[in-house]
Request: fold
Amino acid sequence: MLMHSDRHADHGPPGDDAGALAERFPRGFVWGVATSAYQVEGAAHEDGRGDSIWDEFCRRPGAIKDGSSGEHACDHYHRLREDIDLIASLGANAYRFSIAWPRVQPLGAGAWNERGFDFYDRLVDGLLERGVAPYLTLYHWDLPQALQESGGWANRDTTGRFAEYAVEVARRLGDRAASIATHNEPWVVAILGHETGTFAPGLQSQKVAMQVSHHLLLSHGLALQALRAEHCVAPLGLVLNQAPVHATSNSPADIAKARIDDGLTIRWYMDALLHGRYPEDVLEFLGEDAPQVAAGDLDVIRQPLDFLGINYYTRNLSGTGSPLAPVDDDREVTDMGWEVFPGGLTELLLRLKTDYHLPPLYITENGAAYRDCMVGGRVADTQRISYLQRHIAAMAAALEGGVDLRGYFVWSLLDNFEWADGFSKRFGIVFVDYATQRRTLKDSALWYRAFCARANAAVGAPSAQRGLPHGR
Ligand code: FCB
Reply:
């Protein structure tokens, strides 16, 4: 049930200052909200869905901070219509979501699950009926557990399975999707899933992690080739988490460490995707842990991209010290402990523009967790409003610096299952009471609604761009 806190407009809309910011964006700029399947859907064992590696990981004692799982999450699976209405009510013109692979192909190979596809059909049609463009992601971390049992992403065969899955999804939904992204944040899947082990499937080996990162990129390339061979009309790309890496000091050791971290997080992905090679300094640093790369793999990885999604939350501090920064410093941080550093977004985008020949960019995730409280039916999340405003302004600065940016998605529409942090972190602009599943617009949602209304009123300069290039 949605609680409308429209009455808060009586207190003066939190969007008073939205107009000037909105006018810095071109007409046609996409303003959206984002979620991912495992974090919101719930219904983990319904209508034929298979287990994913996150279902399995959540069963591991101690893996999830509050002992929770995505089994019920926001119950989005059963509240689809209400949630689509909610998105439309915000005036967002786009919704970024992911398909749960084990919902549509329970074993990650073989039979397709029609009831799973029905759900996504209803989602996509419901969005389109309300004028909201569906931005689809194929893989937001929930690999079918059956594939993990034969090695998961460490097994090269999984790349072929993924391309088959991509083609089937595109056959069913590709005509109605505003875009299709193959992967969300392959760095997170590889490193947090296979090196630090803090995310599913919880392995701890740098060598495996780097092989996984190569296979993820390879699967992206294979999927794009297969989708284009099938004449998929949706623009195709992927989503990377990217952040400028800043050394904690000017010492040669800290600068060298920051350079390697820049290589491992930015250049590893960008060089492979756009230049068809892995950075030499990183290969040298990895030594024996560098992945096995078959002849021709990098040509497969370097497919033309119709767009690139960037998820930005904070900058990356890097150095040899431990802890990295003084614990008593007065940096502004979110409830994740992530520094609020909007200037890093402008810096990152301008740097990428300098170093690479980029396709159109979207900020596919940006947002913040805070300890929100509902008081008298209202969530006064002024810090989140400030976070969003400052990052949107940072994006405007990049746009004014010549970066071809096309859209922005707030992470997240709803408070949801925040991976290893369980339900302890709230990223939503809509508050979810998990006991009742009641949704309440936080003040940030009211602010974003006012902002979208101003932005969509097309007062900004006309866009130089006209939609995305299709089907190269
Ligand atoms: C990103 C993930 C997203 C969410 C945010 C906070 O790395 O893509 O699912 O967890 O972080």
